[in-house]
Amino acid sequence: MTLAARVLRQLAERGETLAVAESLTGGLVAAALTSVPGASRSFRGSVTAYATALKHELLGVDRALLAERGAVDAEVARGMAAGVRRALGADWGISTTGVAGPEPQDGQPVGTVYVAVAGPGGLGKVTALRLNGERTDIRRESVLGVLELLSGELAENAGAQDTEQNGGN
């Protein structure tokens, strides 16, 4: 089973939905998810906000944050995930932003990537990735990184839900 299929299964078992905000991956996360038969049960859609201005205009990322830090930043990734979750009405939102190359961007070296997840009840996490390789490799590893982050959050959140349902034991 692929990582995308595992994430979609986790979401379907919970009756929850997912939205994706992508920058450097340019739709690769959405493509990985929609390659799985039955993805429409949980996958709501995606926004490819490649241009920095779209991160604010479509996803609600703070304009001052973007101006101060640029698009390649942990808090921008967090804002993208929360923004796409809100914009597409999903239970979970994930995002990718970073530098695939060939040139540095916003003072960040090639291979600097941030992936984020935003979930119900304010749950969320950002992970910084330092990736090596060519542009294609960095983009592919970014897809895996964000799906692994989401899968981990879903598993962790499921454990918390089980504990609550079983009286905290």
Concise description?
The chain has 169 residues and is an alpha/beta fold. The protein has helices at residues 3-14, 28-34, 52-57, 63-69, 74-88, 135-165, and strands spanning 18-22, 43-48, 92-98, 112-118, 124-130. The radius of gyration is 16 Å and the shape is globular.
Low-confidence segments, given as residue ranges, are: 162-169
The first-level CATH class name? Alpha Beta
In the CATH classification, which architecture applies? Alpha-Beta Complex
What strand line-up does the widest sheet have?
Answer: 2-1-3-4-5
* SSE sequence, one letter per element: HEHEHHHEEEH
User: Between the first and last Cα atoms, what is the distance in angstroms?
Assistant: 32 Å
Number of strands: 5
CATH fold-level assignment: Maf protein
Q: How many domains make up the coordinates?
A: 1
Treating each run of at least 4 consecutive H or I residues as one helix, how many helices? 6
The mean pLDDT is 93
Give the CA-based shape: globular
Structural class from helices and strands?
alpha/beta
Q: Sheet with the most strands?
A: 5 strands, mixed
Proportion of β residues?
A: 15-25%
What attributes does this structure have?
169 residues; 46% helix; globular; disordered C terminus; alpha/beta; Maf protein; single chain; 5 strands
Structure characterization notes:
With 169 residues, the protein is of the alpha/beta class. It has one domain (3-162): CinA-like (Maf protein), CATH 3.90.950.20. It has helices spanning 3-14, 28-34, 52-57, 63-69, 74-88, 135-165, and strands at residues 18-22, 43-48, 92-98, 112-118, 124-130. Strand 4 (112-118) and strand 5 (124-130) form a beta hairpin. The radius of gyration is 16 Å and the shape is globular.
